[in-house]
């Protein structure tokens, strides 16, 4: 019998963040059968991290291994190079230099391993299991501490000639604008539309407007959550913080649409909890910056994936996308 | 004998501009075997235009038809939709509405016909016959009266979900900036880096600087050619016109690189006659706006195709790209 029984095929999805790593066993329907996590920042050497990951994962694999077949491992990680299987110069990870991550994983687990950056993995997860099912052209934007992106065109991820395509958070939306705290660039999308950017905007605006509710919090409590709390209480300054954020996001989205003409733009991440406070101005400023042939065509939607599982699903999707 | 003799395969390439239409018979090596042109704007009805094109082309096809086999027709035209075979609402063409151009051509010529916009056709021409041979990821920017673009990723043109992807000339490089004479958008790349944009910049700058050589010309003689004449005579204002143009172009290119991470950006069109006056500042401002992982990687080069034949070659490439 040479037919493959899809119901028995599973993949291991691993999402590596600066602080935590999440992993899970995922089937073809995008169901997470088992999952766990470990601290990324507890391991100074990548080999120790992979050993620890194996110790965590192996009992799970044993448990499911009698009836399931493991197709491979998909890893989402910052600065991951799909072509080379490496993690390169990732500023938020403890491991410096160029790490041959896929090779090390394959040696330890005995399974093929594919890596890509976390936002690319998220885009694949949406295409296979989420709001982008059936779409061949869409853009995924992750709005968290930073701004990440994954671009699907003609049904495939755009990796570019070197594997690093899709850094939309670092495109410039306001030349000569706000200096980025880490890259030093001036006026990037991330400098405005990330949670970090929103905090900066909020601190500036509450200093300008003493009457704002935002001034009831100590300086270090100002973040996108407290801005949201003030916005739902109708503080006009908090609402303006989100409106300005949405405007910058929308202006950037218009440029992305004129690049790849996607069917939809999917937004994901902590910042989207602000909901319509950001989505409405984003939509408005996207549309008004588009050429007429692009107007009122692009769906601007929030991700449908459960946030706790999305990263694992996305990473596992790497295994099946091939 | 079922093998195809490639040396006998030819395609008809047609490039439709607002004023003139060029056409030619092209072989697999990108050699233009025969060519001609007719006025686009002399035909108010598209059917009359296609009849006239047939009258021009048919004798050529007869001449080569005894020994060559015509594989098909490729057409580059403004607002052409690759998926539908239509030319839609093209502001610079005499035919209004949505024209089923490929269908009309097929009915007249009895050959399959594919259409795309002129910059996409140019990108294909560069990939098959020009400076991008062997590249799978590059961006073509045409700098003429307007600014067009064609984007190749994973070895294929990016058409987007509706066939209209790649309108990089209309991306915003300076929010709230110069109003576009036709679209009404504010601060688009085309408003600065097209020949029309350069003329506007030159007229503004010569008014500010009475000592500039540019003031030796009557108002209607100011264009990218006269700016170039003054720049090579070392007029600092003319040089500044190009430097500013190059800066805006370079800032836009940085954003495009962070989108699709191309191996090269190819520049084509009348504006590139300004050479290093534009290329050097464009390169500088592209690099300084890039994330470090993208720096000093992207080749910024001029097209190698003969300008007179490039449009025909590009259109013919559509036939073989499939």
From TrEMBL, chains A, B:
<keyword id="KW-0418">Kinase</keyword>
<dbReference type="Pfam" id="PF00480">
    <property type="entry name" value="ROK"/>
</dbReference>
<keyword id="KW-0808">Transferase</keyword>
<dbReference type="GO" id="GO:0004340">
    <property type="term" value="F:glucokinase activity"/>
</dbReference>
<dbReference type="InterPro" id="IPR043129">
    <property type="entry name" value="ATPase_NBD"/>
</dbReference>
<comment type="similarity">
    <text>Belongs to the ROK (NagC/XylR) family.</text>
</comment>
<dbReference type="InterPro" id="IPR049874">
    <property type="entry name" value="ROK_cs"/>
</dbReference>
<dbReference type="InterPro" id="IPR000600">
    <property type="entry name" value="ROK"/>
</dbReference>
<protein>
    <submittedName>
        <fullName>Glucokinase</fullName>
        <ecNumber>2.7.1.2</ecNumber>
    </submittedName>
</protein>
């Amino acid at each position: 019998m040479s037919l493959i029984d899809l119901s028995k095929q599973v993949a291991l999805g691993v999402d590596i963040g600066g602080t935590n790593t999440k992993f899970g066993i995922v089937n073809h329907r995008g169901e997470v059968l088992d999952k766990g996590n470990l601290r990324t920042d507890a391991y100074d050497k990548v080999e120790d991290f992979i050993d620890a990951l194996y110790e965590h994962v192996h009992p799970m694999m044993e448990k499911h291994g009698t009836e399931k077949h493991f197709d491979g491992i998909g890893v989402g990680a910052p600065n991951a190079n799909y072509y080379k299987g490496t993690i390169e110069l990732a500023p938020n990870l403890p491991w410096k230099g160029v790490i041959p991550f896929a090779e090390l994983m394959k040696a330890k687990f005995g399974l093929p391993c594919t890596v890509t950056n976390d936002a690319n993995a998220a885009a694949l997860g949406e295409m296979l299991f989420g709001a982008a099912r059936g779409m061949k052209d869409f853009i995924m934007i992750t709005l968290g501490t930073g701004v990440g992106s994954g671009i699907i065109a003609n049904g495939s991820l755009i990796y570019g000639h070197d594997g690093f395509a899709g850094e939309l958070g670092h495109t410039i939306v306001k030349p000569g604008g706000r200096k980025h705290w880490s890259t030093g660039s001036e006026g990037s999308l991330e400098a405005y539309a990330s949670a970090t950017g929103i905090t900066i905007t909020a601190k500036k605006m509450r200093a300008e407007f003493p009457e704002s509710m935002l001034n009831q919090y100590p300086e270090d409590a100002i973040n996108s959550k407290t801005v949201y709390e003030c916005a739902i209480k109708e503080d006009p300054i908090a609402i303006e913080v989100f409106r300005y954020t949405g405007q910058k996001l929308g202006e950037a989205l218009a440029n992305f649409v004129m690049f790849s003409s996607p069917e939809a733009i999917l937004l994901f991440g902590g910042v989207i909890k602000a909901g319509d406070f950001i989505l409405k101005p984003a939509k408005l400023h996207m549309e008004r910056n588009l050429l007429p042939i692009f107007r009122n065509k692009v769906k601007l939607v929030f991700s449908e994936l459960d946030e706790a599982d999305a990263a694992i699903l996305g990473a596992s999707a790497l295994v099946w996308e091939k």
